[in-house]
Amino acid sequence: MSTSExxxxxxxxxxxxxxxxxxxxxxxxxxxxxxxxAPPASYLLRLAGCLYWVPVGVVTxxxxxLAWRWHRRSDRLAVLLVRYGPGALLAVALAALVxxxxxxQFRVQFDETCLLGVSQGMHTQRLAVMATAALPYDGxxxxxxxxxxxxxxxxxxxxxxxxxxxGYDRRHPLWLNTGLLAGALFLAFAVVRRRLxxxxxxxxxxxxxxxxxxxxxxxxxxxxxxxxxxFGGLLAAAIDVHLRPEPVRxxxxxxxxxxxxxxxxxxxxxxxxxxxxxxxxxxxxxGFDRRCWFAAALVPLALAPLLPLAVHARDSNFYPEAAGRxxxxxxxxxxxxxxxxxxxxxxxxAHALPGLSAWLGAGAALPWLWQRRTIGYAxxxxxxxxxxxxxxxxxxxxxxxxxxxxxxxxxPAACLSALSPLLLVARFGARAGGSLLLFALGLLAYRGGAxxxxxAFPRLQVEQITDALDGLVQRHGxxxxxxxxxxxxxxxxxxxxxxxxxxxxxxYADVQALQRQRxxxxxxxxxxxxxxxxxxxxxxxxxxxxxxxxxxxxxVDGRHPITLxxxxx
Length: 569
Prior knowledge:
Largest sheet: 5 strands, mixed
Low-confidence stretches: none
Strand content: 5-15%
Number of helices: 25
Oligomer: single chain
């Protein structure tokens, strides 16, 4: 009596499968084991190295995938130049106009200058670390206290490459965001031009700029616009796969998805959500060949360091505003939703959210839904992730639109809402394109005037303080100056020797030695209006004033005054 044995994979297929399994499971596990088994003294150093070199590898592997997609485009370059060249010129011109009317500047210190500090560490040490204190030694600024930041570091990596190529300059994040603004405006033009015509395409970048939040973020030094551009690229790549599932499009989707996952905290679950929607929509992975499986096998390794970073980011010291509350909770969403809806549909000009664009978009969408028309799957690939991301922000403890610094968290939804009036062109055809263009021009003038006049977005406390600090450094900074105070990390990004009050007290003997060596010739104490709030982390400048003789150097008056003292030797 014969017995049948279960079928076994052919040897020629078994080896590739084992190699893929090793890539997908073995290498990430080995990397994480190497990290987590490190002695406590070297764990953060290893993590900082991974957070630099793994994103470098991700970018290196993503570029060939993007080049492959460009090579497999359906239109010749000459055709693309004729069709999209005017949009590129329009995007550059609008970005230049924005920079003239709303000069770029750092607005949120503990987000923007932390990213700048990480880029500084990547540039000088090839580590994703941020110097929080530095001392001068023999003409060189030496970091003496560093930390691994909580934020995914891809934006900082791009800025560090700018430092590598052009020399360190604290304005590089602002320049990068200006370029990203031009790129985002062109992307909006190109996507709309292909589907709705020239008039609607010209309207798209104008509608985006008519939402002041877009301009505020684009002229700041944070990573929000960077993440939104990658998010938009991910959604466009997902639609590309949905329309024609083939290997080159799948690999492009994976490449952009991994880049996006390294851009912001919530990017990884959004990448997983979009991938799940694609799989569900096609009931599988049509067109997924061996090249795609090889690329997919590299994804876990490319994303593995984000797991220890997420654990590191849970440290409550990163979230002093939470004051012990849960970071994500349903009650946050219930509290944040009513003011969110009021602000989102506020028709006045003196606020940063969509307002009239949201009303017009809702007016175009509701009749469509009322007539029970089906929503295409491509539209769901956009709507579901943006809605999920917005709900996540509302459930976040800081997702209250009444807090100006929280508004930037809603940028993806604001961009989609800004473009929602284009539904009118989709519904009524090209004859609505001209009317929409006139509306976009009028809305941009209406909202832009309030933004330029400072009515749409308030001048934040930290922005005023850092502007005053910039003036003090320009007037009093010199070789041999050491600054002591709570803004030490910000001053280090300006390549100034700086210590927090606590660091100064702990390192006072080192400072005295540097004074004897003439590496430190003047010690300045900076007293600001935020010192009391920052005292638990950085120490209280009043303790230094009471303990050591000092001389008043300058006082900067205003809503947030700063007093500068010179400490006696």
